[in-house]
Design brief:
about 0% helix; about 45% strand; about 120 residues; four-stranded antiparallel sheet; seven-stranded mixed sheet; single chain
C-alpha cells in the first residue's frame, strides 16, 4: 500500500464547505491533523478500524470523517468553515489492527503521513 495522498483543499468563504480526500485508505486506522504557520500540528478527526470516529473539540458538530466500504478513500467533510480552520491538512495512517481498535487523536499513533493539502477560509 502506498503512502496516503491528500486532495481537495482550496479556498472558501466563512460558512462554506469543503471536502478533503485521502487515498489509499486501506490502513487499519487513519486520522486528520492540521497545522497553521507558527502553530503546532493539531488533531482534527480520527477513524478506527471498525469505523468508530473521534473529533477534536474545535470541529465538533462541523466536520465529519468517513471511509468508503472498500477502504479506498478517507474523506473529511468540513461544514460551517471558520477563518480559524485555515491550515495545511494532513492525513495520518497506521497499519496495526491491534493498535487501531479505538480512534486516536494522538499524532504519535500514526506512522504514515501525506504531504498535506492547503485549506484557506476567508472571513
Amino acid at each position: 500500500q502506498g503512502q496516503p495522498v491528500e486532495s481537495g483543499g482550496g479556498s472558501e468563504q466563512a460558512g462554506g464547505s469543503l471536502t478533503l480526500s485521502c487515498a489509499p485508505a486501506g490502513y487499519d486506522c487513519m486520522a486528520w491533523f492540521r497545522q497553521s504557520p507558527g502553530k503546532e500540528r493539531e488533531a482534527v478527526a480520527a477513524i478506527a478500524a471498525g469505523g468508530a470516529t473521534a473529533y477534536a473539540r474545535p470541529v465538533w458538530g462541523r466536520f465529519i470523517t468517513s471511509r468508503d466500504s472498500g477502504k479506498r478513500t478517507l474523506r473529511l467533510k468540513m461544514n460551517s468553515l471558520e477563518p480559524e480552520d485555515t491550515a495545511t491538512y494532513y492525513c495520518g495512517a497506521r497499519r496495526d489492527a491491534k493498535e487501531c481498535l479505538i480512534p486516536s487523536l494522538d499524532a504519535l499513533r500514526y506512522d504514515a503521513w501525506g504531504q498535506g493539502t492547503q485549506v484557506t477560509v476567508a472571513s
